[in-house]
Structures
1.
Amino acid sequence: MCRSAAEGAELGPLLERLRRWGPAATLHSAAAGAPVPPLRPLPELVHDYAAEIGTACMPVAASQFLQRYAYRLLTPAVIAWITEDVIPDLGLANTRVRYGTGRDLSFTLVHPVGAGPVTWDEGVAWVARRLVEGHLQPVMAELADAFRLNPRPLRMNAAAPLLYTFAVCDRVPALRSRGRGVMDGVLAALFGGERPRLIAADPACGGRLQLLDRRCCCLKHLLPGATGCAECPLLPEADRRARIGDLAGRDELLPDLHPPDLRPGPVPG
């Protein structure tokens, strides 16, 4: 279906351009000829994450870890698709997790390959096959089994943070139309014909930000000192719209993702 578009030198410039968007869009590439880094067991990563976010409740930690994991996995894929019609191969077998302090989670590509240039249909099929079926589904299944999580809400929890990525792209007029098309494609890949409803800010609050209308809780409110997310299903819809409006009016929507031309300060070297 999609031909391999990026091998070695061809993908290197793409990874550099992604890095200019910030840590959330950054992918690393294994050095040529270097040993493939070992896979870290997911339960081990969740226990490290639990210590970072200050909880001893492993189901809460696993739910929050999945959101971080999916956000950092899918964000570089959708930024590359929106800006360059290329989708890096982020299948489970071709990625290794890099996890450091400060919740700094990112991915290394074992082989710097991808698909592109892709049409919309090809992009949807690639994301569905390589990122959803070939990566997120087995990760969600393992987390559900290891930490006694209900597997049904996990896909929604994995997808929800990605709407913030699309909202950042929506702030760039040149990317707005294409970004919305890619958003439709990614949601189709994640949910098939059962695409969830989106909820937008009340126009009186300002901004066009749309987030998933969650029907299941991500458990964030159980963390020490947490107040829940803007789209928390435990809140009345009017309260959620007001919270989303507050987010939409902020100059900085995400601390780890900025379009290069809007990024404050120098691009990191």
2.
Amino acid sequence: MWVGIQVLLHSVEPTILEKAARHPALEIDAIADLNPSPIQPLKINADGLSPLPITFDQAVNRMQSAGNIYCEGDGSFVVCGNQIADAKNQHTLWIGRDAKRGKILPTADWRFAAPDSPHDSNSKVVWRIEGNLVDGSEHLNHVQMIGFAPVPVWREFLKIFASERAEKDLPCVFQLQQFGIFLDVDDVLNAAS
């Protein structure tokens, strides 16, 4: 399955995530292809968010050394590729704005929807993730992201923002600003797997 998003990526202290109450499953247009959605928004106050466990410079360096990610020194980035469309990736979990309008995210022509019906074995779907790194005082504050990609691509991409020492990693949440809600990143990716 594919995931299309327009979100902010934040870290949150594990204790806050564990104690966070959950709203009923989403019933808004943020998720178009799963009905009813297994994803329950988290009741988290913005003051419960934490900076990501790496610095702005570390994130830029990791992106620039990844080889397939174009990242400017100001923190703007883009990565794209393509994948064969088959029965395993013919549905898309949309998280963000205007999910039902043509099943594409707003702006630009490069965002092709994942196939809704089987295609021949040569059919490729273009994916792309772009955004901006937002610096904090000592660590990366958050990441603005918009994109459309297969779940394995998202999982690999999000590793960029992990601590070099796993014990220092914090759980991450997606913030959907336009809806005023937070979603556990693992919940989103697991729902789309």
